[in-house]
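Q: What would this chain look like folded?
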Amino acid sequence: MPEKSFADALNEQIANEFAASQQYVGCAVYYDTETLPRLAAFFYRQAMEEREHAMMMVQYLLDVGEEVHIPDIKSQQTSFADGVAPVKAALEQEKRVGEEIYALFELAREAKDYRAEQFMQWFVKEQVEEVALMGDLLNVVERAQDNLLLAEDYIARENPGEGGGDPTAPPAAGMGG
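A: My prediction, written as structure tokens:
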């Protein structure tokens, strides 16, 4: 039997998702301060997406009758050494979140909690996409580090991370789902 229940682990992940959202706001603020509005908008969008992931987890716990814990908010970094650092931090954060998601999936499987395992499948797919997205953006920002307006042009042209809503995504709390 696993040391921790899936519900307890998912509550911890809710805290991690909210923290990721807040850190993305910190990245966005940095780019806003640097008058790089497209990079700022990209990270504000990412912040909303991470918040939505947390709310999906909240809804799941509500649906299965488990207790939900909403974490405290701690301050996040809003200044960075250069224009590449926020994207590097974001990529590391996505890799870490990916490992957390895989551990949740494994916990659900070990506990033979089939509802939880099925719920986590979407997040496994999502993390593959998020790591790839941040890796691509890091490549662009590193190449454009002497003139981040080139990265702004890339975002304007390619619209990374602006896919339509995923109909297979779990419902988020507060969204009528």
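The helical segments are 6-33, 37-63, 85-110, 114-143, 149-158.
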